[in-house]
Structure formats: structure tokens, C-alpha cells
Recover the amino acids of this structure.
């Protein structure tokens, strides 16, 4: 299922002139499956892209989307799961969610989504601003904006701002391209890493100059780079958000670390025990102090298991937490 916003836009783009509806989660009180800023597309023929709940609201949202298409007006919906006696949707999460539905067409310049699509595809970040309009407003009056910003200036989460001049609140949604993972080493144990990362919506590039490794057949959703990593262009290396070094070769791992330490992704993982890490660093003439990022060596979390899929889960879990600036906290402590 497509979840990252650029994936949704990619599918929407092929039929963008149809009467789509964009559904946006604007407000949450209590707990909910998704957070404010989550978006979903509905097609007039019933097709939908993305999700705003765990599956309990989508059928009803589809029905409301048809109404928005017919009236070409803004719809405001509220789903209240705090009343346990109400079995209409059986949400179970105990929160209140508010969802706005906006028809998309040429009169409102397709809400500026095409510009956002091209920006994200070019690797740029930005803030999507759209008004929170009352029920019944004509869709042609919907005006949105897109402001590109540097990755370091991107706000952490969606926020609501008040526009006193126009008399309505606006939703500011931070958007950025998918996480770009570089896997240095295209062996068998790299395959589940690439598969899991793809399922997360991440972009994956596999670097391996060896002829018998990193075959496209084994990495169907990845970009394969077969030249030595120290001969790569700076653009692709600088675009990496994280890197897993798993060549199982001291020289190749050392070469990869020398390249990565100059480009500094947010997370670098080196496979193998501590004594091997020290050998690789010695070979690369590097020290732990040279890494201005989260350098995980040995790689990953202590989740148990020794098969490639378990190792992949361990590394990706830790990397995911680092990239999202999360702490390893129990969910029942977070979702109170």
C-alpha cells in the first residue's frame, strides 16, 4: 500500500485531471491512528490512495468524497470515538478526529499539488499551506501555497496558524522526499534490508563494485551502482540520509566509511562486532571521533535473532528511530 505522500502524488499525477478529492486530517483530540497533516486521495470511480485511519473510516470517507465531487464544495467531518456507546464506526482509539475534504480541479489549480510533486521528486523539502475552510465553501476559492525550505529549516510537525487578515486558520504541513538509504554491499543479507526499506517507502541505492554482487534481479526496487563508491558523484552521496556498510570485506568497508565520513548522513551502520569495527577504522585511518553523526557499530539494536531478516529489522529499527529523533520508549508511555 502506498503511504509516502510522493507515492500518492505519483499515482494521482497520471490522472490528475479527473475529479479527485483530497482528504486532510486537520485536528486530533486524544489518540488517533494518524496525525494532523495526513492526507488521502479519492477518485470519482471509488479508488483511493493512502489512509487516514487503521481502515475503520475509509469506507465512510469514500461516501463523503462522492458528495464533495458532486457539490464541488468543501466538506468538514468529525469522528468522535470518545463515546463508547456509539458503535457506528467502532474506532476504539478513543479520540476525536476532524477531516477536511477538498475537491481538486483546474479552477483551484489542483491545489498546487503538481508543483509539490516536482519539488519532492527533485529532492527538495517544503511547507504545504492550505486554509481550514468551513463547510460548503466553493472549491474554486481554495488557495494553497508551497514554500521550499532547507532540510534544516523544516518544521518538525504540522501546525495550525491563524490568518487574521483572511479570518481563517491555515494548516502548515511539512513535506520532504522519502528517506534515501545507501546500502554498501550487495550480498544476500542486504536483500531483506532493501525489501523492508522499500516497504517503508524509502528510496534505496545499493553500492557494490563487485561483478557477482548487487544484481538487479535480487534488488528489484533499488538503484544499483556498480562503480567504486569513491568514484561516485557527490550528488548521490550527499543525498543519502542513512547508510548501512555491509560489504563483508575490510577494504571495501573502509573505502565506504571514508566516503561517508565526508558526506555525513544522519545515520551510519557498520556490520560486525567491535573488534572488526576497530580493524575497519584502522584500515580507513579513521577514529570514532571523526563521525559527526549517529555511528552504529556494531550495527542495530539488540533485538535477538541472527538470520538476515532479523539483522535487517534491528538495523532499520534503530535507523528509523534516529531519523525521526525518537527515543526507545514503550508505546504505552508515549500514547497516554
Amino acid at each position: 500500500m502506498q503511504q509516502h505522500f510522493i507515492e500518492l502524488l505519483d499515482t494521482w499525477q497520471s490522472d490528475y485531471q479527473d475529479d479527485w478529492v483530497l482528504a486532510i486530517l486537520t485536528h486530533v483530540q486524544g489518540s488517533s491512528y494518524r496525525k494532523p497533516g495526513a492526507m488521502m486521495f479519492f477518485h470519482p470511480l471509488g479508488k483511493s490512495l493512502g489512509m487516514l485511519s487503521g481502515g475503520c473510516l475509509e469506507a465512510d470517507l469514500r461516501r463523503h468524497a462522492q458528495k464533495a465531487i458532486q457539490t464541488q464544495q468543501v466538506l468538514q467531518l468529525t469522528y468522535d470515538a470518545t463515546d463508547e456507546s456509539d458503535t457506528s464506526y467502532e474506532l476504539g482509539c478513543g479520540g476525536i478526529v476532524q477531516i477536511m475534504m477538498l475537491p481538486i480541479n483546474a479552477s483551484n489549480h489542483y491545489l498546487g499539488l503538481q508543483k509539490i510533486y516536482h519539488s519532492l521528486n527533485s529532492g527538495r523539502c517544503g511547507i504545504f499551506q492550505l486554509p481550514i475552510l468551513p463547510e460548503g465553501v466553493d472549491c474554486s476559492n481554495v488557495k494553497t501555497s508551497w514554500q521550499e525550505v532547507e532540510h534544516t529549516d523544516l518544521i518538525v510537525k504540522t501546525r495550525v496558524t491563524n490568518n487574521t487578515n483572511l479570518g481563517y486558520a491555515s494548516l502548515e504541513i511539512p513535506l520532504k522526499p522519502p528517506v534515501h538509504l545507501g546500502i554498501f554491499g550487495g550480498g544476500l543479507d542486504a536483500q531483506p534490508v532493501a525489501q523492508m526499506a522499500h516497504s517503508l517507502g524509502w528510496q534505496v541505492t545499493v553500492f557494490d563494485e563487485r561483478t557477482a554482487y548487487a544484481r538487479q534481479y535480487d534488488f528489484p526496487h533499488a538503484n544499483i551502482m556498480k562503480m567504486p563508491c569513491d568514484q561516485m558523484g557527490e550528488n548521490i552521496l550527499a543525498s543519502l540520509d542513512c547508510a548501512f556498510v555491509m560489504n563483508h570485506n575490510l577494504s571495501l568497508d573502509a573505502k565506504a566509511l571514508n566516503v561517508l565520513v565526508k558526506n555525513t548522513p544522519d545515520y551510519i551502520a557498520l556490520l560486525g562486532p567491535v573488534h572488526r569495527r576497530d580493524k575497519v577504522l584502522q584500515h580507513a585511518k579513521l577514529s570514532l571521533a571523526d563521525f559527526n553523526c549517529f555511528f552504529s557499530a556494531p550495527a542495530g539494536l539488540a533485538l535477538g535473532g541472527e538470520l538476515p531478516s532479523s539483522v535487517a529489522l534491528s538495523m532499520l529499527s534503530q535507523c528509523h528511530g534516529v531519523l525521526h529523533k525518537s527515543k526507545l520508549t514503550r508505546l504505552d508511555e508515549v500514547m497516554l
In short: The longest strand covers residues 21-29.
